[in-house]
């Protein structure tokens, strides 16, 4: 017969084993967030230079995983000043009103092709649920996260007026993600985190 103390012990072990959050990672400066599109039939490549990400991931505990990314759209660089300036206008990203884009995962699953995150992507005040297939690899320094997804720019009202014609600018935009990640050490129990002070 199971005693009360033994039963309580099992409960504590179960809670302790399942209460740990997935490892948290911070971005290394070598991480990149690029996109590829076409303008008048010519391919071009650009990047969002400034973005922040909170990555929490354990392949064996997907319920605890999360990828949260905030992108500063004024940092877009497509290697063409005129095009970059146009992207800031209301016809495109309207960065005066919507300076950031936000990517937030809502679910993780494993398919025959690999791991997939379902995420809400918000651009220009419009949110669309997308599938985000990815590869997460542990490395000696931490981990890497890679993904390539194709978006339809018109889902986010990017390119109004004459720009809505895909003969001017293609509707399909490929987004290429490469994140180099460093694990964040968990705080030591009973010890307050130290403040970083610049001398």
Describe it for me?
The protein has two helices and twelve strands. It starts with a helix and ends in a 16-residue tail after the last strand. It has one domain: Lipid/polyisoprenoid-binding, YceI-like (Lipocalin), CATH 2.40.128. Strands 1, 2, 3, 4, 5, 6, 7, 8, 9, 10, 11 and 12 form a twelve-stranded antiparallel beta sheet that branches. The relative contact order is 0.17. The longest helix has 15 residues. It is mainly beta.
Question: How is this structure best summarized?
Answer:
The protein has 199 residues and is mainly beta. It contains two helices and twelve strands, in the order αββββββαββββββ. Strands 1, 2, 3, 4, 5, 6, 7, 8, 9, 10, 11 and 12 form a twelve-stranded antiparallel β-sheet that branches.
Mind describing the biggest β-sheet? 12 strands, antiparallel
What class do helices, strands and sheet pairing give?
A: mainly beta
What value does the average pLDDT take? 86
CATH topology call: Lipocalin
Provide the low-confidence segments as ranges. 1-19, 190-199
CATH architecture: Beta Barrel
The amount of helix comes to 10-25%
Determine the N-to-C terminus distance: 64 Å
CATH domain class name? Mainly Beta
Could you say which overall geometry the principal axes of the C-alpha atoms support?
elongated
H/E element string?
HEEEEEEHEEEEEE
Give the full name of the CATH homologous superfamily. Lipid/polyisoprenoid-binding, YceI-like
- Number of distinct beta strands: 12
Radius of gyration: 21 Å
Please tell me the total number of domains: 1
| Proportion of beta-strand residues | over 45%
The number of distinct helices, counting runs of at least 4 residues, comes to: 2
